[in-house]
Structures are given as structure tokens and as C-alpha cells.
Amino acid sequence: MSRFLTKTCPRLILAGCLPAPAARSARTYASTASPISQFDWEDPLLSKNLLTGEEVAISETAERYCQEQMLPRVLRAYRDEHYDPKILQEMGELGLLGATIKGYGCAGVSSVAGGLITRAVERVDSGYRSGMSVQSSLVMGGIDDFGSAELKERYLPEMAKGTLLGAFGLTEPNHGSDPGSMETTARPHPTKNGYYLLSGSKTWITNSPIADVLLVWAKLQETGKIRGFVVDKRDAPAGTLETPAIKNKNGLRASITGMIHLADCPVPKENMFPHVEGLRGPFTCLNSARYGIAFGTMGALEDCITRARTYALERKQFKGNPIAKYQLVQKKLADAVTDAAYGVLAAIQVGRLKDEGRATPEMISMIKRQNCDRALYNARVLQEIFGGNAVSDEYGIGRHVANLFVTQTYEGQSDIHSLILGRAITGLQAFV
Amino acid sequence: MSRFLTKTCPRLILAGCLPAPAARSARTYASTASPISQFDWEDPLLSKNLLTGEEVAISETAERYCQEQMLPRVLRAYRDEHYDPKILQEMGELGLLGATIKGYGCAGVSSVAGGLITRAVERVDSGYRSGMSVQSSLVMGGIDDFGSAELKERYLPEMAKGTLLGAFGLTEPNHGSDPGSMETTARPHPTKNGYYLLSGSKTWITNSPIADVLLVWAKLQETGKIRGFVVDKRDAPAGTLETPAIKNKNGLRASITGMIHLADCPVPKENMFPHVEGLRGPFTCLNSARYGIAFGTMGALEDCITRARTYALERKQFKGNPIAKYQLVQKKLADAVTDAAYGVLAAIQVGRLKDEGRATPEMISMIKRQNCDRALYNARVLQEIFGGNAVSDEYGIGRHVANLFVTQTYEGQSDIHSLILGRAITGLQAFV
Amino acid sequence: MSRFLTKTCPRLILAGCLPAPAARSARTYASTASPISQFDWEDPLLSKNLLTGEEVAISETAERYCQEQMLPRVLRAYRDEHYDPKILQEMGELGLLGATIKGYGCAGVSSVAGGLITRAVERVDSGYRSGMSVQSSLVMGGIDDFGSAELKERYLPEMAKGTLLGAFGLTEPNHGSDPGSMETTARPHPTKNGYYLLSGSKTWITNSPIADVLLVWAKLQETGKIRGFVVDKRDAPAGTLETPAIKNKNGLRASITGMIHLADCPVPKENMFPHVEGLRGPFTCLNSARYGIAFGTMGALEDCITRARTYALERKQFKGNPIAKYQLVQKKLADAVTDAAYGVLAAIQVGRLKDEGRATPEMISMIKRQNCDRALYNARVLQEIFGGNAVSDEYGIGRHVANLFVTQTYEGQSDIHSLILGRAITGLQAFV
Amino acid sequence: MSRFLTKTCPRLILAGCLPAPAARSARTYASTASPISQFDWEDPLLSKNLLTGEEVAISETAERYCQEQMLPRVLRAYRDEHYDPKILQEMGELGLLGATIKGYGCAGVSSVAGGLITRAVERVDSGYRSGMSVQSSLVMGGIDDFGSAELKERYLPEMAKGTLLGAFGLTEPNHGSDPGSMETTARPHPTKNGYYLLSGSKTWITNSPIADVLLVWAKLQETGKIRGFVVDKRDAPAGTLETPAIKNKNGLRASITGMIHLADCPVPKENMFPHVEGLRGPFTCLNSARYGIAFGTMGALEDCITRARTYALERKQFKGNPIAKYQLVQKKLADAVTDAAYGVLAAIQVGRLKDEGRATPEMISMIKRQNCDRALYNARVLQEIFGGNAVSDEYGIGRHVANLFVTQTYEGQSDIHSLILGRAITGLQAFV
């Protein structure tokens, strides 16, 4: 614990300056150990028992920040479809960005600790977690895994602080589930040596309108192979790069999403990832982000449980009974609590394997698919408990439902992960 | 057919003035009979075979209006959470309001015809259908069933035209599923003879902010029994009646919803329904509205099918195959098409029984519950077909999903209908 | 009604000789009209309203026979995996075999009436209905549709009486869902003019061990096209035809199932269906049988509802409450009753279209798939109501559950029908 | 590992004498570590990583015995509804009975090791696991937890060897889910000092017909409190104790089930558990057995997966494709594999907590409910892969499906566990 809180990441000391949680927080932290033999509906299978002291501390710091600083902003942000980039800066100050990366001012924590951070953020909103995932897993993780030493030095420290924002450009308008068919290309600059020209369009790119740096995947004209390029917006000549926002989304409205249009945008050769070719590059980044989603969505589900339970205890119908007393309501709660507990265990297990180098992409497909699916399913069922009141956005659960549907479709739509698993189980591919 | 189009409701002649459907419509009408032995995915069990010529004509008129006049407005209306009251006027001009009522300028069509109208409207948007249901079934229907001759003459003709709008005040903030516990009261005016003073609050009242006339249910102080009052906003003294809008809804954003606050609002005794006491009054109105919901939601589901099918045929992934070719996609379509076909048959059957006086409230609970549940379930599954693109509101399916969730919770939340059915099946009540 | 009961099929007069139902029957017939506005859990959407008087009479005759004569035998038959061929004779005496066929001693009733018979039989046991479906729809129906006048005259009258039994040989060990790949062949007899020699194996053939006549589908060597042959067991030389029983089944144990092994079995050319080639022949037969399954499984589901409801009313747990009073139990009943009601309406609708020549195979795929799936699903859920007692075969519901699983897999496994529907909806086939 | 294999339980040496698994086993043991980064569909989330070497060894010993010795007998046993008591003796010889008990010749292994044994046994058949659970958890566990030193010495060593068999009498014909209402009584013997007379009936008692010792729960007449009695069949006077078998079960046919009828059966006071009163006694035993069920059912599910996968790879339909190549088949496999992986992780977690004294009964309700429900659900879905062939008992999956339904209903029917969880989550009971 000490390393995280004091040495690697002194900024976390700030956490201590926050008001005591009891005073302000919307959520009571399970910071004191449950007495033995007491069932805790917030951690029904005592997953906390599997965490190190450091991990518990990180989780508590993240939860406190999220409940106290982020939660009060989300209702309005979602209504207005507005994303405040300061949130990433605040996260940076707490050491929450790129937290699993070693060096470059990053905290260097375990994968499980990284997952606990995503859970804390997604307990507030999946959109906020998406913004963080892009910064931490997709862009910083990609640069850390595949970038040259120079790229790392140039970008990671500022990104860790949240003062430089990133976006990840893989998906194209006509190629969602099948990125191998991408059409974006990089060709040698006809006149300017040491430069590529990138052309093509990317869509559904979280953070693209506010990002300073875009990690863009494109096919190198010379080889036809997919390569990764760090496109620095600040260096792009006018007219070669646009990142318009996409508005009027059904979900993840508290995050910002856009496109990337490249029209012969020049990028220096040094900004190309040197050693990774083909889909291995983007898939490695996605793998890491998917792990965060698998853990994060459990936070959203847990928040739905808390909200539904509170509502059910307070709402009285038929002879003054709280509706929490009705069998049909209790079954909904029992199902959701169970799925959340199982999902957290699976996420912890895969995190441990990840740090041991034993996690396979299929494992991450499995937990990404299952946790998103079950979070969404249960959130929807819990929403029924609110009856007609669910239509008011004040109760928050409709926002989670809308968000979780999106998490089920991005970074591998659920059916695609089914087929990835099916292929791993049978040895036969069924995509076509 | 002739009666509907020419005698009872001459305004329907207007329908003939609309441009030919082929020229403008977003939907191809199945107006020419399918050739024998050809499966029609839009009417898989040939429910049209069960309709009269008049009903087919009414359905086509309504569909044409909805696709041509309403559909182009809905995207913006939903985004902006704005309801245009002119829509009810247009419906009135076509004879679509209170269409099953006989006399008073109403069309006097069959229950099935009424259901076909709700299907046409809800194919566009459940919010538009909600606005119409309130006007037609809850308020006009209530006045027609229980109002004095004077009330009928005074209100029905204008309401049929859509120039006078109504709202239905039953649900209270603390009494949703259990209206029998309502707190709104009517007491004799202490000084003004022949008047009651109404006090209390109603919530989630569709149309209340724009309504001219409110059908309010309140407990008569003298008897403790629930009675119905037609509260004419135009006669309410300042400060006794407010109908503020509720904003920031998760669904039904193209309809307008509000509260009703009554503070010693004086209502003349003649505006009380003379002969109905207790829950029979509001439940009769609800019964009629629920029938419309049961039929209407099938329209929303059918629109989801159409949209998902089109998308699946156009969207290509993996070696250029349209995703409609994939088994997992086809199963989703097959399930939805089946549920829509079954739901329409059930709605027609109950409509016929209704007109024969053989429909029981439990039948309507059954089809309201089942059709809302299956419409919602399938809409959600079909939404998966759109993958990440589903998050864009341009595809429309997310709007249906959000709307259909609300239809599942209003006018009897699904679980409440389960218990109504359970009671009818077992003879035992399980509400408490 | 009169035609059925007196003219076409005088044997039905026997029905009048049965003891009065009130005295012995396990089921109360809804023969007297329900009073208006009374919900009838046994016919919740009043499907009876859609039947002719003749159809009601046929249904009652069939129900009475099934409840009084078949029901008492089924428990032992299922335990012992024993099928009593006398049952088909009894059905024949009542005019229940090949009932929709006109002439040849058959009753010539409507498709809906035929469906009502399968519902009555399957209310007792899906195995008994299977035995009847093979005789009536697959074999008699096949001969009636495609056989020469001589074949009809020779076989149909005796089959209608149940004194001559049939089996239908289409499925092969390696070709279940894809009969077009069948390996059974018919080649011209090398020496005996006017004869074919049939060779190959068929499996999962209901009734094959007890059948006198086998309708076998084989590829004609000369053309490679599938043709139908009426193989008369009585004429097969020793060693050329075997029909061993398959024992130790998980379901349908009250029916008898076997294989057909043909080793150069000689069949006269006159026994080949003259004008039908390819899969149209067997698929037409299957279509008719599938219609019977769609209607029949609703009977099995209805019996599960009756049994579960009775058990729930009689079983008391927790302070002496009948478990029927619990919400979780009522929901199970409400769901099942709803699906049964919807399924019956769909079956009636398709029956009417069938008689009008407007039913397509996809419609039958739809109702076969949906009704089998929902019958199975709900039967399983209802079985939960019995708790630990469900394991006893005395309660009957476990038998229905096991049977209904088989109905979901035969005559088109559920997924195959999904793909048939998917093809019809999208115009794209996804089988391979 | 050494302690288990050599010191505590020398009989396990026998395991070494069994033929090498490769030669005969129906299952390949995952005894050699998977290479890193290789997805293993038999252990998708690498739960083995959480086991000690000893636990792995125990699991392998148990799996080997079960696959080699038990599996070949089960098909016939199930068909004939015959249980061979020698199986318990063989288990005893291997040290598998009461394995978590310390002393008395028991192996004293961890709860997880105990769970791995149940998984190995239930991979073959839930009935065999039931027979073992009764012996190990319910009776031996009960005596170990609550019996006097004399009772332990007298019974545990022989029971550990499997030479003395036990049964557990709690459930009564009229009191399944609510044992607190039991009617069996113990009254002081009117003439014989130091004896109680037990009267009452117990039903659905696994092993009762073959048991030597019955652990019977009865209400003490003097206090009205429930107490536990070890009823030794060998001491019961003629006519006071009968344990007839219940035949014709739908599931668990490879286990033996019966009743216990007590008619003033004398039991010495020393055979009453001295210090435990009320439902705490039986619920503690059930808790332990339920843990075994939660882990065991995962074995049954895993066997269904293996069987379905093998079938899908071997079965070819449509252009010679193995059906494992179809999307609808792959999705079924992916779902089942995921649920099995999650369920195993949860079972391991609760086992660890159990050994730390931190497992609550609600945790065990949670994993018992979820693992039984998911095992059953997935087994049924996997069964669909077999199409019509599923009806043959040779494929084994139908047996698992029938068994798993029973596991869902016994030792707490699924809905009862939902309400136990609901109570723990909300603080409100909803049983009545």
C-alpha cells in the first residue's frame, strides 16, 4: 500500500485531503472488515478477501473520489450530453490514469487494482469509465506496449497527469466487428522524406473531439499490413485532420464521442509503432481495455442494486408494505446480487492471471461478454422495480441501463465474443 | 368501409387528399392482397384475413397519416422532449380520436379498428400513441361511459376534433400500483352550493400541461368512495390548479407528461360522474386504454423488426456478407417476428370479444402484459443487431426500446398484471 | 356437427355410449358456455368462440375418450416403455384417424378440428399423439396427397379404422435436419420387371416395429431424385426388411420407435407415388404433421397447467398457506396460461388458412417452433412448483417435460425452424 | 499432498494401483499444466491455479476412480433404477467419504478438496453424488458437528470406510420447504428409562432403504424443540421402523430414495445430539451438503459440455460441416462453458471462506441456487445440440438434465433460496 500511496505516486496524498467519506459520500465504504459470518449484500462472496491491502486502499481512494467528485456532476452531464475534460485531469492527479503502467509517473499497480479503479468510476457512469479506459488502456497502454522509447517519454508522463488527452482510432464506418477489413491507409509522403500520409475515416471514437493525440491504425500501403501511428493533433496541417463530435447518443451521453477524418495527414515515421504489425497491435490494446470493462460494468450493476434496493425499501404499496417485501421484487434483487458477486470473482481471477502472464484473450472475451451481458440484463430487471418512476432520470438507473447496452456492443459486440469463445472451444470459426 | 369513410366521419375524406403512399411513404402498405402461399414477414400469420374491409381501410388511412405526417417529426420531438399538440388536431381531423365511440362526431368503429389505429401511431412512437390513448380511451372513453348527457355533449365533440385536449388524473406520487389508497379528496364547498373542492396531487399524467380538461379521480369526503370529476382548467380560479410538466424523461420523450396539483379547486357537482363509484370507474377507462396499448406496442415492435431487417440486409461484415446472413441475427429476427404475429392475433381476438361484450379485464391484463413484455424484449434483442451504431438516435430503435420500457410499467406494471392473472387463475390474491 | 357425428363417420355414435364425463373424467369439459365476463383459466382468451359447433363437438368427443380411456393407461405405459397398438384401433373406431381426409371412411373435418383432436390426445401424452400423427398426417396424409387411386383405396380405409398401421421413413442415422442428403436408394430390380429394390436405413421411426405399411423415401437411382414408396411389410421377403425397436428412450416412452433396415427389399412400381419428386413430397407430409404438433403441444402444456395449479392449491407450506398464494408461483402460472392461450389462437388461425389454401410452410414452421418451445419452457417452469415431489412420476408433469423436449427436436429441431423463418424474413439462407 | 496421500488416509495409496488413466479413461486429466496463453475449454479461467498441489492430487484421484470405476456402471444403474451400495465402500476405500472431517479415519482435507470430490462424482452422475453427500455431509458431518464423543467414535470410522451407511431424515410429506413445521415427535418412553419413542414419517430420504443408521430430526415432546437422533436400524424392534424405497423416479435414478416410518421406535437418550436445538442442527448439515451440491453440479455441467462438444464435432449436417461450426451451436457451448467457469470460481471462493470460518449460510444459498440453476439451464440448452438423438439414453445428457432438475429442487428449492437471499439483502422476509 505504501508504495502506491507515497512513493510511486505522491499525488495520491491529495486523497487524504478530501473530506471524510462519512460526511459527504453517497456510498458507505466497506472499509471496516465485516464481522465474521455476517452476509454483506454489497460483497456477498467476500471478494475483498482476495485483495491486498494496497488494492483495498486504491479502491477506497477511487471510490471516494468518484462518489464525492464525479457523482454530483453526472446527472447534468448526461442530460446535456456534455463531457468535462477536467475529470481526466482530476483522475491524473489521483494517479488513476494508466495506473497499471510501470514508470513514466504511472502508479504501476496490479491489474486487479486497475480493475477496481474502473469499477469505482463505472459505479458512477459507464461514460466516465469509457473516457478513462481510452486514455489508460487503449492509448497509454498501446504506447507503453508498442511505442518506441521516445514515444513513451514524450507522451506517457503528460497523459498520466491527464493534461494530454488521447483517443484510439480503430473502428471505421463500414468495419466494426471486422477491423481487419479497414480502409484507412498510410502511404509514404511523395515529397517529404520520413513522413507518411494518412487517409481514411474512423467513427465512434471516444474522446476524439477533445484529444490531443490520436492512436490511429492504418494499413501501410507498402505492405498492406496494419500499423499503429501516434497522430499528434497539434502537428496536423489545417485541412488534413478533423475530429467532429457525434451528438444525440442514446447512451454514454456523459462521454464524448466523435469521428476522425484524415485527408493526407502527414505523420513522421518515428510516430509509427516500430515492431508490431497486423491486428496483434490493436487487439492487445483492446484486450486490456476489455478487462477494464469487465470489471467496470460490475460497478454499474452494483450501483443499480444499491439504487433499486433503496427504492424498494422506501417505496410502499399495498397496506403500507415496502415493495422490498414482495417475492417478485426480492427475486430480482437476489439474481442481480448473485451475478455481481460472480462477475467480480471472475474479474479478479483473470486479473491475477494477467499479472502472471497466463491470461489469454479468450478469457477476457469471456468475462467482457458475460459481465456486460449480466450487468445489462440485471440492470433492466432492477429498473422494473421503479415502476413508472423509472422514467425520471433522477433515479439514475435508466442511465445505467442505457449505458450498459452500449458496453455490450462496443469493444466486441456480445455475439462476436460468443463466436470467439465458440472458436476456442471447438477449433472451428463460425464468423462466416 | 363506406360508413366510416363517408357517413359517420366525413372528415376522413381528407385522407383521400394525401399524396399516394407509393410516392412518399417510408413504409409500403400491404394494401394489395398477398398472393397465396407467399410468406409475408410483415404479416406472417395473415392476420389481415381476420379484418373487415372497413378495418383494412381505416388501418391504411391511419398508417399513411402516421408514416407521412408524424414520422418526419418524431426524431426531433424526442430529442427536444417536445410534444406538438397539433398532432391531436390532425388526428381529430382524420377521425382517429375516440374512434370507437358512437355519436358525438366520433367514428364508431370496432374495437379492432381502434386497435389498428393505435398500432399505426405506435409504429411511429409510443409517446404519440400515449397522447392519443389518453385523449381517446381514458378521457373521452370515461366521459362516454360514465358522464352525464350534458358532459358528453359539452366535451366529446370538441375532443373528437382534437381542439379540446384531455388528461386523466388517477396515479398519485405515493400510490402507483394501488390506486385504491389515493389521497386526493373532494369535499363540499363550505360556502358555494353545488360545488366540490378538490385537493391533492397526481403525477405522471400524460398531457396534463397542455390539457383543457382533466378527468380527476378523488375520494368523496362524505362517503370515502372514489368518484370521477371533469375538471375544466378554464374554470379553475388562479392558485387552485397547477399542471407543471415533468422533464428529463428516459422514454416517451415525444409525449408530454406532468403533474396535477389541486388546492381547493372548485368543481361544479354536475361535473362529477353521476353513477359510478369506487375503482370500477377508473379501471373501466384503464381497461380500454390497456387494450390500445396491447395493440399499439405491436406496431412499435413491427417497426423495430423493419428497421433491424433493413439494417441487417445493408450492413456487411466479414467477407462482404450482409449480417442478415448470420444465424445469430436470423434467430433474433425470427423470434421477434413470431412474437409480433402472435401478439396481433391475440389483440384481434380480444377486440372481437370486447365488441361482443365478452372480454374480461383479465383478458386485457393478459394481452397488455404479454404484448408489452414481448415488444420490449424483442426490441432490445433487435437493437443488438445494430452493434455500436445502435447508440445513434438516427436508427430509431433505441427510442422504441426506451419507450417500450415505459409501456411495460404504466397502466399496470407487468408484475401487477401477473398477479391479477395469478388471482384469476388460482382464486387467491398475492398482492400482499 | 351433424355430418361428423352421424353421416360421414357413424362410428362416432359410439362416443355416446361412453359413461357420462362427470362421473369418471379427470377433466371437466367446458361444454357449457362460460357466463359472460367470467375469466376462464382453461380458455383465457375464449378461443372456443372461434370454433364451429361441429368442432366443439369433435373436441369434446376426443377429450372424453382421451381422459377416460387413454389417461388411465399412460403412467404404466410410460414406465414400461410400452405402446399398446389397440389405442390406434380405438381412435379409428371414434373416427379420429386421418380425420381431415375426405372420403375413404375418413371424417373429412376441418384442419382446426384435426388440431383439436391432437390437442386432446397430447393432453394425455405426446407419445400417444405422435403415434396418431404418424398414422394420420404422415402416412395417411401422404397417401391421400400423393398416392395413386389404387394406393388410396387399398390402404386408407383400413388405416382409418386403425386396423392397419403405418410408419414414415424419412430420417436417416446421418441425416436428420438435412434429409436432402439421404442415402437410401431405389434401383430397378435387375431381374423382376416392375419392381424396385430399396436399400438403406431409417432411424427414429415412430411406430416402425408395429407398422404394417411403411412410407419410405428413397433416391431413385435413375434420376437421383427422392421418391416415396409404400412398402408393405407383409410382402417383404425374409431378410430384406427389418424394423427393430429402439429402447431406453428419455422421452415419448409411451410411443414406440424403431429403425427401418432395407436390404434390396423389392417394392412394386405401383407402390411408388406417381407424381411427386424431391423434398416436396416428404415436406408436404411433415407440414401437415407439424401443424398437429403445434396444436397438440398446447394440450400437453394445458395439462401441465392444470396439474400445477391443482398441486399449488393443495400443497400448503409456511403457516398453512397453499403455495398458490405465493407471488413466485402465481407468476409461473400466469406465464404458462398466457403462452397456452396465445399458442391456441395461432394454431386456430393457421388451421383456417390451411383450409383456405393460404397457409405457407413458414407459417407452420413458426407455430411448430413457437408452440413446442413455449410448451417446453413453461412445462419446465411449472415443474418447479412441485419442488422435490416433481421427481415422482405420479404427478405426471415430468413425463410431459421429457416428452415436450422431444417434440422440440423432431420434425424440425427448433433452431432449424428459426433458420427457415430467418430465410423467409431476409431472403438469405444461413444453414451453411 | 503428502499428508492426504500417505499419512491421514493410507487407503488412498490404492489409487496408485489403478491402471494408468491414459489407457482406459473416458476423460483426459488436465494433470500436466497447460502451456501459458493457451485457452483450455475444460478450465477456461484456470481455476486450477487456485488449488494446492494436494487438492489437485485429490481431484485427480477422485476423477480417475469416477471415470474408470463408476462411469461404466451408471447407464445400466439409471435404467434399472438400481443403486449399488458397493460404490460407497469403494469411495470409502479411497478416502473420499467424510473427507473434510478431521480424525476418525477421515482424510481431513480442505473444503475445496471436498468440493472437488463431489465434482468428480457428479461428473458421472448426480445420483452417485447424492448418495455420497448424504453419507459424508449430512450424516457424518452432522455426527461430527453435534454428536457426543461416543457417537463419533461409534459411527464415524465405519462410515468413513463405507461399511456403515447413513441416511438423513428431515423432510416430511407435508413439510418440504418449511421443516420447522415438522410433525415427527420424540417422547420419553413411558416405561423404559433413558429412551425416547420416535414417531412420524420422513420422505424423499436418499439411502434410507439401505442405510444402517438414520439421523432423524424430531420435535421433543417436552420442549417442542427440534432435536437430532441417531437411529440405529439394527436396534429397532420389529414394527417400529420401516424404510421402504420410492420407485419410478424421473431423475436421480442411480441413487436410492425412500421413506422413513417411525412408530414408537425406541432410541436411547445417548443417541440424541446433546447440545443442538431447533433448526440450527439440520441447517448446519444442509449447509455443508449444499456446498457439495454447488461444486458437484459444476461437474455434471462440465460433462454435458464435453458430451455436447464431442457430438457437435462428430455430427455432420449440411454439406458435411460438423454442426460445431454453426453459430447457434457455438453460442450454446460458449454460454455453458462460461457458466461452468464462473460457478467453479464461486465454489472455490466459498470453500476457502468456509475453512476460514467466514462463510455464511447465505453465501451457500447463493452458490447452491446459482450453480444448480445454471447447470440445469445449460444442460438443457446443450441437449438441444443432440437434436432427435437426445432421446437415446446412450448419449448421457438426458440423464444429467433429469438429475439436475432434482438438484434444483432439493436441499432448498431454487425459489426458497431466492427468498433467503432476498431476506439477507433487504432485511425483510417474504416467505409468507
Automatic annotation (TrEMBL), chains A, B, C, D:
Superkingdom per UniProt: Eukaryota
Domain Acyl-CoA dehydrogenase/oxidase N-terminal: 53-162
GO biological process terms held by the UniProt record: fatty acid beta-oxidation using acyl-CoA dehydrogenase; fatty-acyl-CoA biosynthetic process
Positions of transmembrane segments: none
Pathway: Amino-acid metabolism; tryptophan metabolism; Amino-acid metabolism; lysine degradation
One Gene Ontology MF term: flavin adenine dinucleotide binding
Pfam family, one: Acyl-CoA_dh_1
A single Gene Ontology CC term: mitochondrial matrix
Ranges of residues in domain Acyl-CoA oxidase/dehydrogenase middle: 167-265
Keywords: FAD, Flavoprotein, Mitochondrion, Oxidoreductase, Transit peptide
Locations listed in the record: Mitochondrion matrix
Catalysed reactions, as listed in the record: glutaryl-CoA + oxidized [electron-transfer flavoprotein] + 2 H(+) = (2E)-butenoyl-CoA + reduced [electron-transfer flavoprotein] + CO2
Essential cofactor(s): FAD
EC number: 1.3.8.6
Domain (Acyl-CoA dehydrogenase/oxidase C-terminal) ranges: 278-425
Family recorded in the similarity comment: Belongs to the acyl-CoA dehydrogenase family.
Protein name (Swiss-Prot/TrEMBL): glutaryl-CoA dehydrogenase (ETF)
Originating organism: Apodospora peruviana
Phylogenetic placement of the source organism: Eukaryota, Fungi, Dikarya, Ascomycota, Pezizomycotina
